[in-house]
Specification:
Blueprint (H helix, E strand, L loop, with lengths): L13 E3 L2 E2 L10 H7 L2 H9 L7 E2 L2 H30 L12 H12 L3 H22 L1 H4 L2 H18 L4 H11 L5 H4 L19
Parallel strand pairs: 1-3
Antiparallel strand pairs: 1-2
Length: 206
């Protein structure tokens, strides 16, 4: 005997330029062709950012925009900057916590349980925006403050763990750069001090 499903996901349509996909009209997009051109994490992220329960537009242009503006500019650039500065100035633990992620875990968990993947990603990237604003305000390249770099590195650990279901290959790369495990136990403990080396480019701009 098999257990019957308790939840049924009825998602909206993916449209192209406002029109429903149609083989007969030639309005289609092949995910396998996208995978031949772009990394799997980019394709996966670009699709999961679409609204789940409402109809939404999707296209190669949308994929490129999400790669360049969100993955490369916001996420990739932050990881690159923090890792490069941490390689030079090191990390020093601090009891001050400006970048708090406990509420982020709760909101992301709520959205995942209700299958609202786009909203979960919006929450995570709002936290990434907060991290980018924090590094701009604190200017650790001028102050050489290793405590600021530690707080940023710890925040990167936290949001990378939450991003791992969406972009697993990239999350794994980040975990190796900052030396943490992808797990809830790791999320609930502060980052261990270790030697950090500058990250390679995570997302090439298209």
């Amino acid at each position: 005997k098999y257990a019957l499903p308790t939840t049924l996901l009825v998602h909206g349509y993916l449209n192209i330029e406002g029109k429903k996909m149609s083989k007969s009209l030639g309005i289609t997009i092949d995910p396998l062709e996208l995978l031949n051109k772009y990394p799997a994490d980019v394709v996966r992220y670009s699709l999961l950012k679409n609204t789940v329960f409402d109809d939404s537009d999707y296209s190669e242009e949308i994929l490129i925009e999400r790669n360049n503006n969100e993955l490369a500019n916001k996420l990739g650039n932050l990881v690159s900057r923090v890792s490069a500065l941490a390689e030079i100035y090191g990390l020093q633990k601090t009891t001050i916590k400006n970048l708090k992620s406990s509420s982020l875990l709760r909101s992301v968990t709520t959205y995942l349980e209700s299958l609202e993947f786009d909203k979960a990603l919006n929450e995570i990237f709002a936290f990434i925006d907060e991290c980018n604003e924090f590094i701009q305000n604190k200017k650790p390249w001028e102050t050489k403050d290793s405590r600021v770099l530690y707080e940023l590195s710890n925040a990167i650990k936290d949001f990378s763990i939450l991003l791992s279901p969406f972009i697993p290959e990239t999350a794994e790369k980040i975990s190796k750069i900052f030396n943490f495990e992808i797990s809830l136990d790791s999320f609930n403990t502060t980052l261990k001090i270790s030697k950090i080396s500058k990250a390679p480019i995570l997302f090439q701009k298209i």
